[in-house]
Automatic annotation (TrEMBL):
Enzyme Commission number: 2.3.1.-
Annotated source species: Rhizobium puerariae
Domain of life of the native organism: Bacteria
Pfam assignment, any one: Acetyltransf_1
Coiled coil regions, renumbered to chain: none
GO molecular function terms listed in the Swiss-Prot or TrEMBL record: acyltransferase activity
Protein's UniProt name: GNAT family N-acetyltransferase
Enzyme class: transferase
InterPro entries named in the record: Acyl_CoA_acyltransferase, GNAT_dom
């Protein structure tokens, strides 16, 4: 058994990997975002169905809800990840939901961390949100680690939450609260 001294923690990542640009998504990104959403690994971690069309994606970009934000991560002019922040209304206006995904070939490179840092900056410093929440499949260990590093905690366990790849799968509800 290793002692605490023998275990080295990974050094913290910089906020944004070198060469990555975070920007607002635009209707012109529809083709690249549809291709991203149709990647098997990206889709596996989301509630998206296969074969998302460019037109469906474009419509989503053009009809974004008031106050919502969708950001993309670009590397070498190519979209390699995206994140969405959807503020709630009425008595839940202090809260928002978030959903994100990273290109299959770019996972583990800090893209998700950069996107999460950018969207949480908007939530905290521009929208004054007190609660940001998300749902993640229980078998998505990499995403769960990212969310926990970003201050999210598990609040609930949804059994048979969604049908994926021929079977029902569980999910966690997670949230990040600010005082």
């Amino acid at each position: 058994m290793k002692s605490r001294e023998d275990v080295r923690e990974k050094p913290p990542r910089s906020e944004r990997p070198e060469g990555v640009v975070i920007r607002s998504a635009a209707p012109g990104d529809a083709e690249a975002l549809a291709a991203l959403a149709n990647m098997p690994g990206y889709r596996y971690g989301t509630l998206r169905l296969p074969f998302q069309s460019i037109e469906e994606t474009r419509k989503g970009l053009e009809t974004i809800a008031p106050g919502a934000r969708r950001l993309v991560a670009e590397f070498d002019g190519r979209i390699v990840g995206d994140i969405f922040l959807g503020p709630m209304l009425g008595r839940r206006r202090h809260a928002a939901s978030v959903g994100m995904g990273v290109h299959d070939d770019f996972t583990g490179r800090g893209i998700g961390s950069a996107l999460m840092a950018a969207i949480l900056d908007i939530a905290d410093n521009w929208l004054n949100l007190r609660r940001v929440e998300l749902t993640v499949f229980t078998d998505n260990a990499n995403a769960i680690r990212l969310y926990e590093r970003s201050g999210f905690v598990k609040e609930g366990h949804f059994r048979k939450f969604a049908f994926r790849d021929g079977a029902y799968v569980d999910a966690y509800s997670m949230a990040r609260l600010r005082a």
